[in-house]
Design a protein that fits this description.
Blueprint lengths: L1 H22 L13 E3 L8 E7 L4 E6 L2 E7 L8 E8 L8 H8 L11 E17 L3 E14 L2 E14 L13 E11 L21 E11 L43
Antiparallel strand pairs: 1-4, 2-3, 2-10, 4-5, 5-6, 6-7, 7-8, 8-9, 9-10
Length: about 260
């Protein structure tokens, strides 16, 4: 009986691991890597997120171009939806006034020391509507169901967005190598949902800072393996930069399947 229970347990573990790997865009055996995982890590800083606060006493417009992330999306079968993740550094947010940026990073506002990143995790993509589809490109309007994390608090949002897939050609290669995915989205962030209240007793929110911040994204990612070089999970990356490469950094590589084994004397 114990042996049969052990076998059943082992089978369940293997199934769980297989399912986890199937959903893992970094899995080198995943079909998702075969041209439909797009990396958004433009080192030239052309990906931008813009945020705007409107209040009676002041309007504030801020930006960041330090955006990193990935999206798994099959442009041939958009009905399957997509998922992904984006991260921006709070320290990279720029409102045009250095002192204001310093205040923004402080514990009274976004508390960059305790919560250094803002994160958007796309759980589901639904309601796909074709806008224009040709042999070389496809544009869809869709709804992104995502978990947005700010200042350590997470809230589920439904975000209207537009995805445009472009097959590699002479024009797209001037931007990035590989097939491209352009992603645009707009959504609102209510500061009180994330515990952002400003300095106590000063009443700045609602007078100098809007209660709700509008956010717009303009991002382009690529399916090219070369663009994944900075991705630590990239199976095609160079040994020196890729700690997940099973051929490199074995001693310090948590992703190395051979790691953790003691060498025989």
């Amino acid at each position: 009986m114990k042996f049969r229970s052990f076998i059943l347990f082992s089978v369940l573990v293997l199934i769980s691991l297989a399912n986890a790997q199937t959903k893992n865009p970094c899995n080198p055996c995943s079909k998702a890597l075969q041209g439909s995982v797009f990396q958004f890590n433009d080192k030239m800083g052309r990906n931008t997120v813009t945020f705007k606060s409107q209040a009676p006493l002041e309007d504030i417009i801020g930006t960041t171009n330090q955006v990193s992330g990935h999206v798994a999306f099959d442009p041939q079968h958009p009905e399957k939806g997509g998922h992904g993740e984006f991260t921006i550094s709070v320290a990279s947010l720029n409102t045009g006034i250095p002192l204001r940026d310093e205040h923004l990073r402080s514990a009274d506002w976004l508390d960059a020391n305790a919560h250094p990143n803002v994160k958007l995790e796309i759980k589901e993509t639904k309601n796909f509507k074709p806008v224009k589809v040709t042999n070389e490109s496809a544009t869809y309007d869709a709804t992104l169901v995502a978990d947005f994390t700010l200042r350590g608090k997470t809230k589920r949002l439904e975000i209207p967005g537009r995805l445009t897939y472009l097959k590699e050609n002479a024009v797209t290669k001037t931007k990035l190598p590989g097939n491209l995915l352009a992603a645009r989205a707009s959504f609102d962030v209510k500061l009180s949902d994330f515990g952002v209240s400003g300095p106590k007793g000063m009443g700045l929110i609602g007078t100098k800072v809007g209660e709700t911040i509008s956010v717009e994204t303009s991002l382009v990612g690529t399916s090219a393996a070369g663009a994944m070089a900075a991705n630590p999970c990239n199976p095609c990356g160079g040994k020196a930069m890729n700690p997940c490469n099973p051929c490199g950094g074995k001693a310090k590589n948590p992703c190395n399947p051979c790691a953790g084994k003691k060498k025989k004397p």
